[in-house]
Design goal:
Elements (H helix, E strand, L loop, with lengths): L2 H14 L2 E7 L4 E7 L1 E3 L4 E5 L5 H8 L2 E7 L9 E11 L2 H14 L10 E13 L6 E6 L13 E3 L2
Antiparallel strand pairs: 1-2, 1-5, 3-4, 4-7, 5-6, 6-7, 7-8, 8-9
């Protein structure tokens, strides 16, 4: 599979889902949270609402680098599908905040009532596991991929 096809499969999956697990931390503490998200395909980013006073919001003020997962809930091993990601997360303001909030409330209309800050998680790397393509099949995308040796097919990996 080509890198373009891997990216298409990853974005199709992320568009279908709506909840991610966000993992944040600093030198002394780690925390995770489940968050509803709206996916911005053209920017390869997630928009989500969270308050600065939450534990993960407080940790984000100290360290904006995050990791996490987006996954289906299945018990059948051959149907397992899910993404791991890493990126940078920052609160938005001004026009960027208004644009992101329009996208988010388009996905979650009830959120129009919320005054909670909107955040952007800019994805830097995504690895999608899709056992429907064969056990352990991984599709990868990186915002800034390393150079690939000639003849090496980027974007598809078996195993971890």
């Amino acid at each position: 599979m080509t890198q373009d096809n891997a990216l298409k499969a990853i974005t199709a999956y992320l568009k279908k889902q709506h909840v991610l697990t966000l993992c944040v931390g600093d030198a002394q503490s780690l925390w995770s949270a489940n968050c509803f998200y709206a996916f911005n395909e053209s920017e390869m980013s997630f928009y989500m609402l969270t308050d600065h006073a939450t534990r993960h919001g407080q940790l984000l003020a100290l360290n904006s680098h995050v990791a996490g997962t987006v996954s289906d809930q299945t018990i059948t091993v051959s149907l397992i599908k899910g993404a791991q990601y890493s990126g940078e997360m920052n609160v938005l303001s001004g026009e960027a905040s208004q644009d992101a909030r329009r996208i988010y409330t388009g996905r979650f209309p009830l959120a129009k009532l919320a005054t909670t800050p909107i955040w952007c998680l800019r994805l830097d790397e995504v690895k999608l596991t899709n056992n429907k393509l064969g056990f352990g099949t991984k599709l990868s995308w990186q915002r800034h991929p390393p150079a690939t040796p000639a003849g090496d097919e980027a974007g598809v990996h078996a195993g971890t």
